[in-house]
Design goal:
- The protein is of the alpha/beta class and 346 residues long.
- The chain has a domain of 240 residues: Rossmann fold (3-Layer(aba) Sandwich).
- The protein is built from twelve helices and 15 strands.
- Helix 3 links the parallel strand 1 and strand 2.
- Helix 8 packs across helix 10.
Length: 346
Amino acid sequence: MLSRNENSIRDVAALGGLLSEPDERTIRSLAALEGDILVLGVGGKMGPTLARMAKRASEAARSSCRVIGVARFSSYNLEGQLNSWGVETIRCDLLDRSSLAALPDAPNVVYMAGMKFGTTGQEALTWAMNSYLPGLVCERFSKSRIVAFSTGNVYGLTPVSKAGSRETDSLHPVGEYAMSCLGRERIFEYFSRALHIPVSIIRLNYATELRYGVLVDIAQRVFSGKPVALSMGYLNAIWQGDANAMSLQSLAHASSPPFVINIAGQELLSVRKVAQEFADRFRKSVQFEGVEAPDALLSNSQKSRDLFGPPRVPLAQMLDWIADWTMRGGETLAKPTHFEDRAGRF
């Protein structure tokens, strides 16, 4: 496995291995769990490496736990890749009640299904995926422990001087995507209370790797000579492998009413400074447009650091890896995050 003090990740295979490498905390946490893990919506950007990490951690713990990934699997390659890692797969349209009912029971469910990009113009489907489907899942898996992925967007914009929203803060989502995500949280909370389902709600802000994420968006703009927007002047970013590990560990903290936790980078990052860091690594100049607003989408991650420890991959390491990957023309997912959008349109 790649040492974290190296400045280059060779290829996508090496990247996948690093993103799915479990730490000792995750191995111990999954060793203490009983039963299989069902990952709903495994086909997204984060799902494959999370499922693979769960399988690797279970194997390291000498557990007989099965990890089962559920998605529509429009890409056959992904299904085959998951199978090669020991993750079982089931094709399913989760909005179809009969297909959902046919899924196997599992004591542990990781809910990653949802819709973000392309929500503008498809608001009805966005609400169905983000707010209606959670109710169906809670009814189907009422005897399970559930980790439900949400987003820091539910907080709305917070003053930069506050250093990020905390889990106990009031919620002021901006735009239909963020509002539908708050709907998702409220549905999970309702069923958690009504049916006594142990639930953990993960407010993620923002997971990044080399092919996708806010840091990648900034790096690509600097490298291509395009101006970097400062409208959303500050952000959080966490290495996706660390987000995977913390999310899996949160299974052990699921409760009724739900356990809520921010999973985010520990620093408040300046877009201007991050762009300059990339410019220095690229030996290029950087252009900016606009000015920093006094507020941004920011999360305080103190609670997760107290429970799970600090991220294993620091900011400087992420910047080195992303800069190197960008200069070498490494593969991307071609999905800009639109993090600079202050109106919540995705």
